[in-house]
Amino acid sequence: MLLTRAMMMVFAMTLGMVVSTGVFAQDSVDDILEKARAEAAETEKLKKILNEEPDQNVRLAAFGLMIKDPNSTMHKIAVEAGLASADKLLQAAAFKEAIMSLDRIHLTLVVDQDASDAIQKKSQEYIDTNGDQYVIPLAKKDHEAGTFTSGYHSGEVTGTHLTYVFHKSNGMLSLKDDNAISGDMMLTNRNENLKFVASGKIR
Q1: d(CA 90, CA 52)
Q2: What is the pTM of this model?
Q3: Does residue 91 carry a pLDDT above 80?
Q4: pLDDT, averaged across the chain
Q5: Residue/partner pairs of 64-68 with CB below 8 Å, 24 or more apart
Q6: Which of 3, 40, 69, 112 has its Cβ near the most Cβ atoms within 10 Å?
Q7: Which helix (H) or strand (E) holds 174?
Q8: Are 60 and 130 in the same domain?
């Protein structure tokens, strides 16, 4: 009889703990949902400012505040909205921020079909030997000026274009499809000029 009663007490206590835990878990879930909804609403307001605010100065000011916010999500939202914006100044600001936020740019090379047959052949030989990947390092960066250097590499962002120089190699890459860059690149290999079309993601 006592054993049965003890077992029932233990069962009741266990059940109470489960129910209590369930209540606390539900409170926690409700808090998370409330916070998530509040953040989502705030995000939509900020996106609306960047996309729909008629005053360009307000749009640019909002963008500037968002990219300086310690919350990385805020930075991401600002860059994404800016790159997709029809406002060319805002898009240029977002492009510069996207590039300057990178430590390196990974590009894929394909032979420039507009080059002469001889240059196309040499360019393909380069890819066959070295692969089609090319990396632009961004070490010392001046965010305000939109410039960077790294060893013999240097580059500059102007509008939605990135110009790049490495020894006798150079290229100009432009924003494409809100999240990528592409453009012509000339590489010098063993005193031979090679021509490629380079493309890569910027976020």
Answers
A1: 12
A2: 0.79
A3: yes
A4: 85
A5: 64/93, 67/97
A6: 112
A7: strand 169-176
A8: no
* CA–CA distance, 99 with 1 (Å, rounded to integer): 76
How many independent structural domains does the chain possess?
Answer: 2
How many Å apart are CA 175 and CA 159, to the nearest integer? Answer: 9
Question: Using only C-alpha atoms, what is the Rg of the chain?
Answer: 27
Pick the last residue of a domain from 99, 129, 160. Answer: 99
Burial of residue 172 (CB within 10 Å: 0-12, 13-18, 19+) is middle
Last residue of one domain, picked from the residues 99, 125, 148: 99
In this prediction, residue 2 carries a pLDDT of 36
Structure tokens at 61: 């000011």
| Residue type present at position 72 | S
Would you state the pLDDT for residue 25?
Answer: 56
pLDDT single digits (tens) 158-186: 999 999 998 888 999 999 988 999 999 99
92 and 127 share a domain? Answer: no
Using the structure block, give the residue that is written with the tokens 């960047």.
50
pLDDT-derived band at 44, boundaries 50, 70, 90: confident
Look up residue 89 and give its two tokens: 């100044």
Distance separating alpha carbons of residues 81 and 174, to the nearest angstrom: 18
Distance, C-alpha 140 to centroid of its chain? 19
One domain for residues 42 and 63? yes
> At 10, is the pLDDT very low, low, confident or very high (cuts 50, 70, 90)?
very low
Range of the domain at 20: 2-99
* Residue type present at position 203: R
